[in-house]
Specification:
- The N and C termini lie far apart (about 70 Å).
- By secondary structure, this protein is mostly helical.
- The protein has one helix and no strands.
- The mean pLDDT is about 95.
- It is about 90% helix and about 0% strand.
- The longest helix is centred in the middle third of the chain and has 43 residues.
């Protein structure tokens, strides 16, 4: 039980990293969706 603090710290770091990774993926997905919508509008205007 001496290393319980290290175990908690490791779990905290892993969860923080996972949360950050998911946040970055969500932001990239939103940007890609905006780019796709912009491309669709550009194609509609050029037809």
């Amino acid at each position: 039980m001496d290393n319980l603090g290290y175990l908690f710290a490791a779990f905290a770091v892993i969860w923080a990293g996972l949360f950050t990774y998911i946040l970055v993926l969500t932001q990239k997905q939103r940007q890609l969706r905006r780019d796709i919508d912009w491309l669709k509008e550009t194609l509609k205007k050029s037809e």
